[in-house]
User: What shape does this take?
Amino acid sequence: MSELRWEPPPSGDAVQRAVVPDRSGGNGGSGGPSRWSVALLIFVMIGAAFALGVGVMRVVDANDDYGRLLRSSRDGGSPAAIPAAVQPSEDEDQAVEAADTDGRASRFAILDEIIEVLDKDFVDPAKFESLDTREAAINGIIDALEDEHTVFIDAERYRLASEDIGGSFEGIGATVNSVDGAIVIVRPFRNSPAQQSGIRPGDVILEVDGESTEGWSLEQAVAVIRGPRGTDVALLVRHADGEEELIIVTRDRIVVPSVESLPITDRSGNPVADIGYILITQFTEDTRSELLELLDGARNAGLEQLIIDVRGNPGGLLRATVDTTGEFIDEGVILRQIDREGNEEVFNDRAGGAGIDLELVVLINEHSASGSEVMAAALRDHGRAVLIGTTTTGKGTVNVPRRLSDGSVLYVSIARYLTPNSAQVEGVGVAPDIEIAIPETGFEAGQDIQLFVAIEYLRGEYNPGAGADDDSGGSEPDEVSDETTEDGQQGQEGQQETEADAESQQQSEE
Assistant: This one.
């Protein structure tokens, strides 16, 4: 077969031509090429074009074994002769990582396809158009984890929920909690817009501004109920007696200290001067310092007994909880934290404390959660307090906020905590030593039975069989009631963990 090659014309002209040797064997001076020569030229050109096409295709696919073999055998070299643009990466780990990334992208691309199909074909287009498909997909993943403490909230809701960590916020002035999936008022603050509008402890919030709260998380409820001072929010509530009422509340600036000392009365209505009473509504950065001031006052008054009320306390910052609890324990373990790998971290208290010489009773109820459960369990495990009331919420999970690229936040459960004696809290709660339930109308009638029993216990007058549930006599301190703020989780409005504190725990108020 004749060789197909390029060579310059004799004249030195820059234009090149294809030269095909004459195979006719005839007269070399006959002029133009023979028919066979033309046919051969056409055949060779077609073959060359086909070979070139195969070569190009194999270069494009040069990453596979056949491509490398083809290049090596044709070029007489190694696979390194493949142009850099199509050379396989020498870093196999990078190649695997890229493949994994492509695989994830491919999986999540199905979501786009589903959305496209629903947008085009779903029988109820209005329902689909009103759906936030992005958040629905996110919540679907979170719901599948079956962990009620892992929650996604958008940037605005997070801003509202975290701005009041210093003890003030704009809202209706109440604490809320999530009970069996319902948003429940634990306590309206004294003289707050909520209290003045007729909101009562135990009210179930059915709707907010006409929107059903069914399926809402505590954080979502708090974020929606809170708002700028001077604005109104319409709450459809169901009272303890089953009556439903639409209540319009005008929001205001709410300033709430995390610790208060309040006057109390006994079952007969007589003022109590021999026993101190401290209400801790949440655990913030200021809780310990506020507590120390009140303990100084108790010491100056010569008090030796103290009632600590954490009913309706949703928790708060873990470090604040540990430091506050430590004022009543003369060195020892406050709680144990177990991470996802099973590693245990122990939180200890330093020696000494402003309240280590006081005899204590701690009031708890079903709305005491997280940090308040830590305090109650630690004081009991160390033999420092008797617990009176009802079993606590059972929120034994440590949650931290992870800020996402768009400003939204994912509260993720990173660990479980145990009591100093290694008892589980999550899903179990902390049971009281003396179980006393308050009737549904107890607070409204001024009958804080749990408080009365605490007073009688410290005075040595408590008789379990002598009418502990008596509804008569006495009055409850105005601030004593169960509450969790409407901002989200139990606690005061919008109080939730800050990013700076990886051990913080969620809380919520309206």
